[in-house]
Amino acid sequence: MDIATKLIDALLYAIPAIITGLIAYYFFREHTKNEDGRRRFLLQKEMQVNAMPLRLQAYERMALFLERITPSKLLIRVNPTSSDKDSYESLLIANIEQEFEHNLSQQIYISDDCWRIITAAKNATIQLIRKANLLEKTDTANKLREVILTEMMEKRTPSDTALSYIKKEVGEMW
Questions:
Q1: What is the distance between the alpha carbons of residues 138 and 119, in angstroms, rounded to a whole number?
Q2: Are 52 and 108 in contact (CB under 8 A)?
Q3: For the whole model, what pTM was predicted?
Q4: What is the pLDDT of residue 134?
């Protein structure tokens, strides 16, 4: 036997081994990819299950915030300390801002759109109080309360709009 024949024989023995090795490599690589995907899916599912109560709690707290800054409830809860309308306006706005700052951390658990709507509701409520204070007929703190309540009887409060959005978004979580 010459060298060429030995080389051909070696190649004939090596080719099936190389093909078997490549097939094994391909299947092992696919199995590893599938296993990584499965692990990622399970981890994501577990994180979602753990995060759901936190997200729901954030929505609950923001709903409570919106209820607390609804003008009719805010005016009942925060009584004027004097008859000065400007100091009462400041007291109401400070109360809203304090409530908002207390719930700032909740924004990491709710959607950006929802957070923007809640912030807009807060700002619209503050704007409503400021506008009511600027009216000529508003000359005392009690008159300011009356004007704000009258304004809210005619239209939907900003808090109600934001609360509706929260309910819709929570409903979509199921």
A1: 27
A2: no
A3: 0.73
A4: 92
